[in-house]
Amino acid sequence: MRILVTRPRDEAQRTANRLRDLGHEALIAPVLDIEALSDAAIGSGPWAAVLMTSGNAARALMTHASCRDLGKLPVFAVGGRTAEAARLAGFSEVISADGDGDDLVRLVTARIGANPQPLLYLAGSDVARDLAGDLAARGLEVETAVLYRARAAAILPQNVAAALETGAVDGVLHYSRRSAAIFVDCAKTGGLLRHIKALPHLCLSDRAAGPLRDIDATDIRVARKPDEAALLDLLLR
Fold this sequence. Notes:
By secondary structure, the chain is an alpha/beta fold.
């Protein structure tokens, strides 16, 4: 099958490689461009641990002067891909929630307990949930440092638009609500809405599927758990 990947370019390339290993062809249309903020204010701590909900945070940290100092702290990551990125950034103690934001909140609450030191959340400028608020409700203090921003694409690449117009795409992968919404907006701008409605849309979570439901897409499939392995399992159907 020919599968369209809408992730930021570096992540999309890794997904494309996995798709090729599974015998599929990949088209890449990054709807978000990740920009690291190498001069972001992080603070001086001390912190009990670091929180990450995206591998983009770990990759952005690698360009920051605080990378070496923070690498001594334990990291709580939302899932396996984020945990892998944290290890590549130099963190030696990485604990993965292997799930979504709710799973991360439960893991951190169980592991940190009554530690009086705050947690450091390395985030992007646009986040899907108030992680700091969720943990504050459980008595944990969180300081947030914005390390990257994600710029939305205005249009789809010309080769991708042509493939959608001619029916040469067999499915689209969606990893977040924001990226799915941007994909829909790009399709509207390019006059491609009718071409994407009937496509199989494979979504990492029910939340990511929302923008596809809003346009009455007819074939929406949600992974049984929010990780890429489960998402790619949908291709077997």
